[in-house]
Amino acid sequence: MRKTILLTGGAGYIGSHTYVALVQAGYEVVILDNFSNARADVPDRLEVITGAPVTVHRADVLDKQAVAAVFAAHKIDAVVHFAARKAVGESQTIPLEYIETNCTGLVNLLMTMRDAGVFRIVFSSSATVYAETEDWPIPEEAELGYASTYALTKLMGEQIIRQVAGSDARWRHGILRYFNPAGAHESALIGEDPRDIPNNLMPYIAKVAVGELPTLNVFGDDYPTPDGTGVRDYIHVMDLAEGHVKSLDALMAGAESHIVNLGTGKGYSVLDMLASYSKACGRDLPYRVTERRAGDLACYFGDPAKAKALLGFQARRDLDDMCRSSWAWISRRSNMRGA
Ligand SMILES: NC(=O)c1ccc[n+]([C@@H]2O[C@H](COP(=O)([O-])OP(=O)(O)OC[C@H]3O[C@@H](n4cnc5c(N)ncnc54)[C@H](O)[C@@H]3O)[C@@H](O)[C@H]2O)c1
Ligand SMILES: O=c1ccn([C@@H]2O[C@H](COP(=O)(O)OP(=O)(O)O[C@H]3O[C@H](CO)[C@H](O)[C@H](O)[C@H]3O)[C@@H](O)[C@H]2O)c(=O)[nH]1
What we know:
Strand 1, helix 1 (about 15-25) and strand 2 (about 30-35) form a beta-alpha-beta unit. It is built from eleven helices and 14 strands. The chain is globular, with a radius of gyration of 19 Å. The protein has about 350 residues and is α/β, with parallel strands linked by helices.
């Protein structure tokens, strides 16, 4: 019997890629998304990629009745929970909205799961839950902390799930702490598609590559890193998606709850990314070095050993794969808009 997975936020960037990986792994998948940060045509594109109809419920995780109706309509076996607000800067200006969506939304979901007798959840956490450190690679046991309301909501999400799990032995959770997701599906039909000027490096470079932004601002070249620019653990979004499948497979097979990093364990600098993207798009992309961005760390990358040992997960794709797939996606998207 195929297992049915509820994928909240399944029309978003990581959720849509995880949809593809779950379907390919043989799961039946039901998407719940309010499309607050997703394009309306994503389900059609998922249908083209997977060659099968997509089941979508346009609903808000804050609407308990609507969430319960989805559980009533399908026999859900487990949940992969992506639906959240994710902009760090915005979380500082509208903290209550972030706490509401990310924490109250999670509580609604857990209550509905409990009432429906569903006790397996894979949760999108983030490397942002680690306290600032200069001790890399960062293992899961590292000290935790938060520097933004967004990070607080992810830390609270982890704690809520663990606390609830402690009350009833039937609960099993996979808490996945992502490092920096990048790239797109090889079909170039889905990918990251920010509506505003992006804060993150890869979507910003992508917009420079298609000519929507004039030049990349490199935030500082005097960090204590090999080329002076910031170093991060970029992970291909399809590797990340496959990490969710591994976590879910483990929970469905009766494994214990786990908290793991999903990263590559390798660091790439801003200039590495720029060089790789320039190669992918076939021209040297313009950049200028500006002031450091407030709050940025020089270097940040995770220890992937626990995900490998517990789940057999290892990222397979490298920075060139991330840049090539991002370019294929963004150039196609931009041509379609121009058409
Ligand atoms: N992208 C990153 O760098 C990153 C890093 C670490 C963790 N995460 C986490 O991964 C998850 C997915 O991130 P993403 O990059 O795909 O973001 P995204 O914004 O592309 O996807 C989130 C999806 O959730 C939906 N959504 C938002 N609020 C909702 C609500 N109240 N009810 C129903 N649906 C709602 C949005 O429409 C969107 O489709 C989030 O939980 C995010 O915090 C992201
Ligand atoms: O226009 C830009 C954007 C970024 N950078 C640099 O590129 C690197 C990566 O920056 P991102 O904003 O893409 O990623 P961060 O690692 O800084 O932040 C991300 O990862 C964090 C945890 O690692 C949090 O989860 C946060 O929400 C998420 O955006 C940093 O050195 C940054 O200074 C630039 O030089 N120019």
